[in-house]
Every structure is written in C-alpha cells, then in structure tokens.
Amino acid sequence: MSGTEFDTSVAHQARMYDYLLGGKDNYAADRAAIEAQLEIYPDLAFAALANRAFLGRAVRYLAGGAGIRQFLDIGTGIPTAGNTHQVAQDIAPESRVVYVDYDPIVLAHARALLVSHEAGATDYIDADLRDTGTILAQASELLDFSEPVAVTLVAILHAIPDSDDPHGKVARLMDAVPPGSYLAISHMGTGLLDRETQHGLESHSDRMMQQRLTARSREQVAGFFEGMDLVPPGVVRVDEWRQESGAGGAGNSALWGAVGRKR
Ligand SMILES: C[S@@+](CC[C@H](N)C(=O)[O-])C[C@H]1O[C@@H](n2cnc3c(N)ncnc32)[C@H](O)[C@@H]1O
Fold it and tell me: What does DSSP assign to residue 197?
C-alpha cells in the first residue's frame, strides 16, 4: 500500500500537528487548517500538547514499571522533543524502537529518529498502518517477537475509517506479540465535546484535510484492548491518564487515552 501523496497544497495531519507543537515543518495549507480548527475548538493546542505529554507518560510507564524494552511506534509524526526512543532510552538505554509512518515529510526527517543510544537501537519503516504484514515483517528485523513489545498508536487510529477495519488491524498487530506485551492508544473521542463542536471538526477534516478523521466513543476505544487488561485508570482523557502532577490541565483535550497489557 502506498503512503500519502506529498501535496503541500492540502493540509496533512502530521504537518498540522507539527504546527500545533511549534515545529517548522508545515505549510500554508496546514496552518490555515489549524487556524480554522481553532475557531471551532479553541482547546486544540492544549489537546496537542496534552497528547504529546500522554505519549511521554505512557512510554515512561512502559519502560519503567512495566519493564518493556521493545517498542513499535506507529504514527510517529515529525520528530520533535521527547521522541519515543529518547524517553525509553533515558530509562533503559538498551531499548529498541521501530518507528512507522506513511508521511513523506516524516520519512525525510527519519534520520533524527535513528540517533539511538549505543546500547539500544532504532529503525524506521515507511509504511501504512493498514499494511500490518509489511510492518510486522520489517519490524521483526530489529524486534524479537518472542519477547514483550509495546505497540504505541498515539493519535493515529482516528485517521483510519471504519471501512478500513481499525479494530481488525490492531488485533492483527497484537496477535503477533506475546503475552505481557502492551498497547498504548490515544484517540479523538466522542462524548468529550458538545455536538456542534464535534460536528464542526469532522466536517472540517472532510473539507480541508487529506485524511478523514473519525472520532470514536470510549467503548469503541476500549474495544481496541480486546484480550488485554487495562492499566489503571483505564480509558480516560489523555490529560487525566496517570497525570504526574495530579492536575488534569487547563483545557479539554477531547482525546481518549489508555494503555493495556496482553494476557
Ligand atoms: C498527530 S500525529 C501523532 C504523532 C505522535 N504519535 C504523537 O502522538 O505525538 C499522527 C501521525 O500518524 C501518521 N499516520 C496517519 N495515518 C497513518 C497511516 N495509515 N499509516 C501510517 N501513519 C499514519 C501521520 O502521518 C502522522 O505523522
């Protein structure tokens, strides 16, 4: 399956997120799309930062207490502060991390993701999440699938429409890893915003973005964790997931976040 076209005239999720996080790898269409989204949903910048912070806390939890040393990070995004291997290797330098994204701009920056601690290793796969066979085959060159792996799907699954069977794709990935492996997800949620804002954001993605975004309910997000035990506190807003300071934050992140352990 091919990646996305490199068309800078249409807004793209990776570059919009980069803009929100204060990066430089974005174009006029990405910035215009974000400005329009901010009109609909003023907490969007808070949500982006809260999502990135969730990724950091989840990886710290996985490399720390959970003792995970192998990561498959799908939907990596344009490298920025606190990439998965940096967070994991700060705790366990021997951690191995395979990154996957289908955006040509992320591929162009992949070198930044390949600077690993010498005790560990990183790799990058240019692939579409829906192409699980390619991802698993290539990832097995660095990761040992007989040992636990943490699969991180952070702010990516809402870019997969129901017609592409996102639950089936996640199940296929988790079937390939042994018990004791983990899954971390953040996902644009329904039930977190009022109807008008929700509808505005969805119709915005239809009109202005290369990807169509599908928000999902808490139950649908919990459904990705079939055969797994959810790590407390379960499926909650990303800014509420094991918040280290104890504070929820000053906005509505409108994203569900959860981590589960395969039985
Ligand atoms: C919002 S960014 C999230 C980056 C990072 N995971 C984080 O949360 O900080 C989503 C990323 O998922 C990638 N993505 C979206 N759909 C994808 C697909 N079907 N296959 C691979 N990557 C995809 C986009 O290119 C983008 O880089």
Answer: H
